[in-house]
Every structure is written in C-alpha cells, then in structure tokens.
C-alpha cells in the first residue's frame, strides 16, 4: 500500500495520539512535531507536498514562500478560521489552503456556558467563595428567558447557539450578511441597540475586523453583555475596556482576544503581563477570560484530525505531481 506522507506541525499530545491512531486507516504516514511551522523547521516537511498546521501561530508570507520553495503545495489548517494565513497570497504562489470543520456543538455549548456565567456573575461569586466570603450581595443574576440575545453570524456554530437558546426561551435576533431561516434578522446597528447580550460567531477578515468598534459598543444597551468565542479581532478591545470601565456594559466573557498570540497556550506566570490587554481585562470583576478553548473537546479534536487526514489524502489522489 502506498502511503500519503504529511507533516503535522504544532501538534499537541492529544492530537498526536489521534493522528497516530487514525493515520493507518486513511493510508497516511504522518511526521508529527509539537513545534509550529517556521523557517527553522521546514526540513521536517522534506519529501511531502502536504502539511497540517494549527491556528495558534500566524504564518507569514515569507514563510509561505519558503514552504513553496521546499515543495509544499497544500496546507490543511486544523481550524475553521483562516485569519492566521494569507490564503490569497498562498494560492497566488501555488499553495492550496483548506480548513476543517468539526463538532459545532463544542463551541455552541461553551458559548451558552459563558452566557450563563456572565449573566449570573460567576467570576465574582467564585472569587468570593475562594476567600470564604459567602455573601451574595450584589450578585443577583439575570435569566436568559428574560433577555434578548443578538447572534452575529449564523453559520454552523451560530445556528447551533440559536438552537440552544430556544430551549431557554430567549428572544433571539440575528445579523448575517447571508441570512438564512435560522432566526429573525435585523441590521447590525439594530442588533447591538436591542440586545441584552451579544454573541459573535462570524469569521475574521478585512470586512469584519473591529466589527464591534467604539461606535457600535457605545450603541449597546446599558448593562448589556458581550460574548466572544469567534475571533479577538472582531472587537476593538481598547474601546471594550473603556465601555466596561465606565460601567456602560454589564460584563464580557471572552474566549478569544486581540493579541492572544504568544500568551494563550503559554505558561505566563513569570512573564511581565501588567500592560497587556488580557491583564487589563482580567482586573475587571465583570470580565471572564478563557484561553481560546471553546473548541477543545475530545469529539472536536477527533473531527479535526480525521478531516485533516481525509483532506490530505484527497489532495494527493486528485492532484498530479509536478
């Protein structure tokens, strides 16, 4: 049997175990490293046309050029989003880029969890209990059935969030540039003005960068909550900090953040963090931060690995060697 050779970069231990277990079934022989792809380790891809990368590190155009010179013509990114790769440039120099889809339930479940935690002031409550302060003064919460929730982006994940919210009895409105039958659609400005809670599920690109800018954040209802499990760049974080510090917003729960590269997935306990966006947000009592982990379930990881193997195998079978 002829095996398809691929190199898997930036692969954690749990992913690596899945790749090793599944690869023989798909006729793939993987070279696996936990290091992200870089100029220094391109030689690990020698003799292959296909590589797999994670979403955790940005791939520069100079690195794409170097990969092409090394013979790489296909990149499978183990993510839904492409914002860490300049796909247009890659295609221009002869590298095809393809994403994977995975269990949308992972992110949808996590999003609703963050909604509940924000609405019930979970951060303040947990911090108090850790210090044996069992008072409940000032942490009375809100119920989702009494809230209008605005969903920005109604693709697979946004639609799954909407399905869950229906079970809570929330009033749901939505915004998407390509509306479906998933919800009642309104303009983006109307959504931020009418929602008690706004949740983001749209891709990050040139059109959606700082979709929630200072102007739109100011339009949000006093006391409203912002939930972001999409991409950090969808929100102007400096403007968000201002809106939280002045008390305009009731709180935020953020699984993604501008400037998360080099911070999320790292042990930063002994690094200078005081001036970072994450530290400024973390100091606020009504802000929850988690390290881009909404997708991180055993089911979703299995989906990612399986689709990566399928994608690379299909590319090798369907694309003639140069």
Automatic annotation (TrEMBL):
PROSITE patterns: D_2_HYDROXYACID_DH_1, D_2_HYDROXYACID_DH_3. The keyword Oxidoreductase applies. GO terms for molecular function: D-lactate dehydrogenase (NAD+) activity; NAD binding. Keywords: NAD, Oxidoreductase. Residues 32-318 form the D-isomer specific 2-hydroxyacid dehydrogenase catalytic domain. Pfam families: 2-Hacid_dh, 2-Hacid_dh_C. Residues 112-294 form the D-isomer specific 2-hydroxyacid dehydrogenase NAD-binding domain. InterPro entries: D-isomer_2_OHA_DH_cat_dom, D-isomer_DH_CS, D-isomer_DH_CS1, D-isomer_DH_NAD-bd, D-LDH-like, NAD(P)-bd_dom_sf. PANTHER family: 2-HYDROXYACID DEHYDROGENASE HOMOLOG 1-RELATED (PTHR43026:SF1). This is Lactate dehydrogenase.
